[in-house]
Amino acid sequence: MRLVVLAIAVTIVAWTSVVHAGDLPELRSRAAVVLDTATGAELLGKSADEVRPIASTTKIFVALAVLRRGIDLQGWTEITRDDVNAARGGARTRLDRGQTFRNVDLLRAMLMASDNRAPTALGRAVGVDPAGLIRLMNEVARDLGLKKTRFTDTSGLRGNVSTARELALALRVALADRVVREILMTDVVVIRSKSGYAKLTYSTTNEALLARRYRVTGGKTGYSRAAGYCLMTGAVVAGRDVVMAFLGAEGKQTRFADFDRVAAWLDAGAPGAGVKGGGGTVAKPKLRVRVKGIAAGR
Fold first, then answer.
1. What confidence tens digit (pLDDT) does each residue in 252-270 have?
2. Which domain, by its residues, includes 36?
3. 210, 253, 263, 292 - which has most CB atoms within 10 Å?
4. What is the CA radius of gyration of the chain?
5. What is the dihedral of CA 34, 30, 208, 198, to 10 degrees?
6. Is residue 298 assigned to a domain?
């Protein structure tokens, strides 16, 4: 039996590229952190407080900002020229100008597939222009105590910086909201325009969720040339609820491989982990979310 257990352990180590001193996983992303969801304590970190571009992980803050303003999820918002301009230079969009969608579906398009026309449309749904939305996003970061997080753009295409730690803390708050959590745990959804002309299928970009190897509680990806490949995600592994952030990976799959390495490490009992801090006071302060149309319980 001991030989069988040893063989399994060796297989896990080889598959996950778990390394060197202290049995800690070797993370390939430039910055990363793993936090205990309940306490905010750090289980694992790599340049966790280094300020870096964050690309489309930005959109978690858009969601928190519009939910905070009490967005009517069952209301309708038209895609306009302003949304087209704000998304210029980003990935292909499927939200055509002149089409009108439910706000909850715009949230789905934004959080699941990172559609860059959705953020400014959602801002307009709560009565703010792009500059006003950026201001609200910065207010969310300030109220969460995230001192290194700054926004200058609504989608993450230009500017916007944070740290792995602060993104993980923000995700911790976002996953406590029922609306955000349900969207981030959805693998595929079909949305329709008010006219019925557009019928769009969106799939999540979070491959850790699609893999079903571990219980993923929701997350968001991002990519830009400046930011590299990014991932923030929650998971429950070996009974431990955690939030993770990986920033600056060079390859598209590297961030998901880093997730697998961390999850395997947690599954093995997190050998070599040194628990630091306890950002519990940072995670759930003043931010209050008010939503029309769907309950958004904490």
1. 999 999 999 999 999 999 8
2. 2-283
3. 263
4. 19
5. 120
6. no
Is residue 25 assigned to a domain?
yes
Q: What single-letter DSSP state applies at residue 292?
A: B
Instruction: Tell me the C-alpha to C-alpha distance, in Å, between residue 139 and each of 64, 133, 143.
Output: 10, 10, 6
CA angle 12, 246, 147 (to 5 degrees): 145
Each residue's pLDDT tens digit, 150-176 = 999 999 998 999 999 999 999 999 999
Q: How many domains does the chain have?
A: 1
Asked which of 80-94, 208-222, 237-251, 268-282 is least confident by mean pLDDT, the reply is 268-282
Residues 6+ apart with CB under 8 A from 277: 40, 41, 42
Beta bridge partners of 242: 36, 235
Task: Read off the amino acid at residue 153.
Answer: D
Residue 231 phi/psi, 5-degree rounding, is -150, 130
Note whether residue 162 is domain-resident.
yes
